Amino acid sequence: MKANRISILFFSFISLFLLASLNSYSQPLRGTYTIGATGSNYNTFNAAVSDLVTNGINGPVIFNIESGSYNQQLNIPSITGSSANNTITFQSSTGNRNDVMISYNAYNYNGVISILAEYIIIKDVSILNTNTGVGPAGIFVEYGSDNNTISNCHIQSTSTNHSSYGVIMDMAANLVLSGNTIIGGGYGIYMPFGGSFPRIENNYISSFTIIGIYTNQIQSAVITQNHIQSLYAYSGILLRENYGSNYEISKNDIQLTSSKGSTFGMKIYYSGSIVGELASITNNFISVQGGHECCGISLINHGNYPMHLSSYYFLYNNSVNINSSNASSKACYIDQNIFQIDVKNNNFVMSDKGYACYFDIPAAAFTGKDFDYNNIYSKNGILGYWSGNRSTINDWQAAATNFYSSHTISIDPGYVSQTN
């Protein structure tokens, strides 16, 4: 009888212990956890994500990643309970991105980190995709993954394939990319499938082979204070079919060398704002140099593309310096189907050959456009083109009476260097 009572008590204790253990690990997560070696809450990213998926969250969650190198892929699916207040953060425990290296051989349009969730924050880590083939990405923000933030990360691709990427976004809203260093790949930031309200700010994007920032069918993008640099690229910033109010490209520093073919500092086509609002292109510094055709700012709408119409632009306070031996180069090019544009207080400078301004548009079509208080200068080329070559500022002003160019001047601004 005594033995039976002991057995019953023992099994009751074990059952209560197991039940308590089960309950403690099946509660929604909240608070701070660690990922790393023995002694951490989780030894792998997959273990942490598994708990997130199984249990959800009911408060903000922070995963502090211990210093070290992790050869792992981090895939984050939808998490129950995430919201603007209940965010999920993966970050270096030291706050130094050099202390955590996450590397993986991800290919075929997969990322070292792939996000299919909302309200995820990735910060203060280094990310390296070691794949050298087609389709590798550092971070892939997948379809419908809204309200995510990538900040202060070092993201690098070892692939030089044109179809390789630092960050890809696929039809998502409110993505913030801030303070990151993005090195290599064909594209630094690639948004080809649409989306809305991305904020791309204060990133250093370098050594890409095609385009630094590419967006297509994006609503109301803000692209500001980025430093974009490459010795062998096609374009620093290329926007296609972008639209919406509060559309801003400002304070970017773009420095490119034309080593393979035509190179554009900023190319914007089939894009624009809405009636009553203007897309602002302001306070950018653009330097392009090389022997191929170079262009600083290009606004294009060939064939009067009907979707958004290249229209309603402020083009203010930009400094463009082109140093090219190619006579077809241009500091500013505006296509014949652009309308409702206000161009003021810009420096459009050709340090060698080419056109300071090239307006491929008939004279009568400029009525209602405002181009004034600009400095247009070409050292060894032709000052401008507007219904014919204009060799002097007097020629330009005489041809430009329809769009108010009486205060435009032509002087060498004396840049300190090609890039400053």
Structure description:
The chain has 420 residues and is mainly beta. It contains 3 helices and 41 strands. The strands form 4 sheets. The chain has a 13-stranded parallel β-sheet, with helices on one face. A 13-stranded mixed β-sheet has the order 4-7-10-13-17-21-25-28-31-34-37-40-41. Strands 3-6-9-12-16-20-24-27-30-33-36-39 form a 12-stranded parallel β-sheet, with no helix packed on it. The radius of gyration is 27 Å and the shape is elongated. It starts with a helix and ends in a 21-residue tail after the last helix. Mean pLDDT is 87; it is low at 1-24 and 304-308.
Computed Rg:
27 Å
Count of DSSP strands: 41
Average pLDDT level: 87
What structural class should be given to the helix and strand makeup? mainly beta
SSE topology sketch:
Elements (H helix, E strand, L loop, with lengths): L1 H24 L3 E7 L9 H11 L1 E9 L2 E4 L2 E3 L11 E5 L7 E5 L5 E6 L4 E4 L2 E4 L6 E6 L7 E3 L2 E4 L7 E5 L2 E2 L2 E3 L2 E3 L3 E5 L3 E2 L2 E3 L2 E3 L4 E6 L1 E2 L2 E3 L2 E4 L4 E6 L7 E3 L2 E6 L4 E7 L9 E4 L2 E6 L3 E7 L10 E6 L2 E6 L5 E5 L4 E6 L2 E4 L4 E5 L10 E3 L2 E4 L3 E5 L2 E2 L2 H7 L21
Parallel strand pairs: 1-2, 2-5, 3-6, 4-7, 5-8, 6-9, 7-10, 8-11, 9-12, 10-13, 11-15, 12-16, 13-17, 14-18, 15-19, 16-20, 17-21, 18-22, 19-23, 20-24, 21-25, 23-26, 24-27, 25-28, 26-29, 27-30, 28-31, 29-32, 30-33, 31-34, 32-35, 33-36, 34-37, 35-38, 36-39, 37-40
Antiparallel strand pairs: 40-41
